[in-house]
Structures are given as structure tokens and as C-alpha cells.
Amino acid sequence: MPRADPTTRAWAGAAVRHTARVTNMLIAARRFRIVGGDPRDVIVLHDLLTGLGARPADSGDDAAVDQLWCLGTPEQSTAAVEAASADRPRGALLLVVDVGRHVPAVDEDAFGPTTLARPGVLGVPTLSDDVFLVSTGREPEDDPAAGARLRWARRSMPVSRAVADELRQGGLLRGTRIGVSLFLEPKTAVLSLLLQDAGADVVVYAHADETDDAVAEVLRRAGVPVHASSTATVAEQRALALAMLDTRPHVLVDDGSHVIRLVHQDRPDLLPTMLGAAEETTSGLRPLRVMASRGQLGIPVVAVNDARTKTFFDNRYGTGQSTVFATLDLVDALDDDVRPDLGGGSAVVAGFGHVGEGVALVLRALGFRVTVADTDPVRALQALFAGYAVAPLVEAVRTTDLVMSATGVADTVSVDVLRACAPGAVVAVAGGVDQEVAVDAAVAAGAVRTRVGRKVERLAVPGGQGVLLLDGGRCINITAAEGNPIEIMDLSFAVQLGAVRMLVERGDELDRAVVPIDPEVDEVTARVALAVSGARGGPPGGGGGTDGATGDALAAQPADREPDVRTRRFGDPS
Fold this sequence. Notes:
Blueprint: H1 6-23, E1 31-35, H2 39-51, E2 55-56, E3 67-70, H3 74-85, E4 94-98, E5 115-118, E6 121-123, E7 131-135, H4 146-155, H5 158-170, E8 177-181, H6 186-197, E9 201-205, H7 213-221, E10 226-227, H8 234-245, E11 251-254, H9 258-266, E12 276-279, H10 282-293, E13 301-303, H11 308-332, E14 346-350, H12 354-365, E15 369-373, H13 377-385, E16 389-390, H14 393-396, E17 402-405, H15 415-420, E18 426-429, H16 439-444, E19 448-453, E20 456-460, E21 467-470, H17 476-479, H18 486-506, E22 514-516, H19 519-533, H20 550-555, H21 565-568
Parallel strand pairs: 1-2, 1-3, 3-4, 4-7, 8-9, 8-11, 9-10, 11-12, 12-13, 13-22, 14-15, 14-17, 15-16, 17-18, 18-21
Antiparallel strand pairs: 5-6, 6-7, 19-20, 20-21
Helix pairs in contact: 1-2, 2-12, 4-6, 5-6, 5-18, 5-19, 6-7, 6-18, 11-12, 11-18, 18-19
């Protein structure tokens, strides 16, 4: 089958990225329909959406469609929107995307007055409170509209809302002080407000490069103390974090374990009064496990990152989409004389854990030729079976256009790797730790840093060809974009709420160690998410899961069914 025309593939990729950027919503798992358009354009857009995990809706399918991608005439689009919005279940969001390639495909005036739901997204109240329009041919408004962005995030976080409402009704969090230390953007603000609504006394800290000042101000107006500023120096950030700790929180909700480690270092007197903490990330759990092995961990820390409803979705689908899209958005914004042509190019993904899997999946869907580098031979073999080329990192980067590090390990992209990179290769980090790209070591070796665009610099390393480094090697989706998609963080924050519940109910009984999340939290989170999506899982304990449930499955077999000789060869396994 011939490859798609590069211009058409670039158009489709830019349209999908624009839609994800202005909505901060996920592409995977959404039900879509393409309306009108040149069949060649339709095929490319269809393949991209399905490659990212979206599901096409058949024309005769009565189930609610989540997205209409309009390519044809305004008349076609108007009829499709009216049909999709008729008798729509309340709360089921319909996103109408005008993806007209040369002229608008949607007549926005046909639906009556519109309202600004958030920058780049228009509401259509005359049709429904749940119908919204996005035009890929129009740049979003400059107004940060933090309040609108919070309302937009909240409406797309039904799982977290349901869990928080149960906590509120039970009164479990009344009088509990909770310190939240996460990327401060609309979704985190919604989590903080849900905790507050559930009865907790909430206080927030965030690192400077992870702080949206407009969102922080909305929280302050809502009565939530916020110790954060996007302009704070490192010393000021430390002081702000300590000020948050000095409110004597009973529970910490952390991302990267910075504040958990800080309380052990600078406020150890608080540890006996704390119920524990919940840690969001792989890179944050690593040092905590080391502390626990040395007997230095003074509180139980719930490993939120290890929850299946976090890792399988946040790390793979959320971080995969948001980091790749943020990277390409930064590159596309460069001036013509600096911007490399990444269309149809090659990419190297360092690390094939859940994040690396997601990054590779998104890059391949966008048309990149992907090579995976992983020092774990099992992970490398897994990448090979997934259809990717595999090579050592220092070799793979010699001919690639884009390097994405997804390990969460310092010095992954070492000075030697930087020297080996192809001239002008783009280097970015998909969530991780400080110095995952060895910038300090490169500077110590004589590297020169030259700013060439927003959050982009040329890093010229002696003995190398020079690379384009994005945002100093920091976590690109957090520091240069709006973080993971809302629906993904809805799952992760529902797990965080479950971890908070664990700590409040029985934190005193837990070991002073990194402890797993209760399996029930995973199951409840997944079942609520399935219900919200209109899908259904099997009944609890009904068999068919990956863990077996053999006894239930055998008991449910018809009486006249022959025994399975493979399980009963040497007697009844029961």
C-alpha cells in the first residue's frame, strides 16, 4: 500500500494536534465520525485517529459519537451536528472539529450564538450544553481564561467527581489537612477543589516551571492557600515548599517525591503527626524505595503510580500523546531558518516502559520511523515484537531526526549520546527527572547553549554536530504544554483520591514503606470509567480476567460440556 502524501499527512497531524492542544483532551478511546471531504484526506485522517487509539463509529451505529471531524461542506456538517446532538444523553460531550483543509467546513453561525468555553473552544448553548466547536484554522484566544479552563476540566473529570462525592457524603476527610504538590494547572486545581468540597483543608505547592499563575489565583480566590509562583528562584521554591509543610498536613499528594523527601530532610518533626503520602510517578518512587530499604522512610507512601488504572493509561496514552504533541508544536513554532523538517522522518525512543510504549505508538501513528533503545533486553525484545527497530542509543541517534527520552533516569542522553546525534536532531524528554539529558555535564565539557525559539535552544557540544534541545531537557508536556489530557488525569486523580482514603482510614496501620494501592481502588476506578463511557465490564469475580478466576469459570460451564483435558489430565484441579 503506498504511503500517504507527506503534505496530507502533515495537515492531518497538525489538525489533530491543534484539537488536542486547545481542548487538552485525549484522542484514544474516543468514538469519531468523519463528515464529507476528499476520500484521500478522509483515509489519512481516519488512519491517524485509529492509530492513536480512537474508534470509528459506523454510520448506522446509534451509540453517541464523541467527535465529528468535518471535512466537507458546511451543509453536510450542519446536518451531521444536528443529528448527533439530537436526543443526546446529558453530559455526553460532543466535539465538532472544523478540519476543512482549504476553506471552513463548519458554519458556526448556523447554530446561533456561541460562547467561549475555553481558548479555542466554542460552546453552542442553543443546541446543547454538551456540544462544542473547534476550528483547526483559527488560533485560540490569548486570554488565559483560567476560570473557564477549570470549568472545562471539571466537566470532563466524572470519575474523580464520583469518588470525591462519595468521600464528601461519608465525611471522611473533615478536618484532614492535605498538601498537594503537583503540576499546577486546571486539572490539579479541580482535584484540589474536589478535596476541599469533600471536607479537607487543602494547601498547594508547585515548582516554578510547573505553575500556571492564573490557575493559582483562581484557587486562592476559592480559599485554597497556594505556595507557588512561576517566577520563583530555586531558593524561593524551597521556601514556598517549606511554608506549605509548615501548615502541618496530615497527608501529602506528591509528583516526583520532592516534597516527601523535603519533609524528611527539613521537617522530620512533622513525620509522627502525618498519616502518609501518595506518590504519582515512577521517578518519584525510585528514591523512596531506596529510603525505605535503608530504614529512612518515616511515613507510609502509597504507590499511586503502580496502580493499573494509572500506569496503563496515564503513562502510556496520556504521556505518549501529550509529550509528542508538545514536542512537535514547539518545533513547528520555530522560524523557517531554524525549524527542521520532521515530516515523515525518523525518531528514537529511549526506554520502552509504559511511557516509552506510548511515545513510540504516537510517533508511529504520525508517520515516523521509530527505533527503540532500551538497556533492558526484555524491554528491547518487547519493542521488537511490537514492530519497532531496536538499537543501542548511541548508535540509533546517529541518523535520527528526533530523540525522545522516556526512562526517568538521569544521564540517559549522556554527553557521548549528544555528541553522536545527527546534526540538528531534536532532543526532548517525555516526563522524567532532572538531567535526564546531561545538560550540566555537557556545559562542563564546553557545550554552548543558544536560544533559537520559545523553549528551544541549540546545544553545541564539542566533538558533536549540535542538537536542538527542548525546554532544557525538562518534562516537555508539563513545562511547555498543559500536561496530560483531562480524561487521563481523571483516572489518575481518582486513584489519588483512593490513596488518600486509604491513608485517612488506616494510615496508622500501614508500614513505613512504599505500599501498594488497594486493588479495590483500581477496580472501582475502572468500573466508573467504563460506566461513564457507556461500556460495561464483567461482574466482579465473574472470571475472564487475566488473573484466572478458574474455579468460577469452570463452575459456570454447562453440565453437558466435556471436561477440558488440558486442565484435568491428572485429576480434578479443584
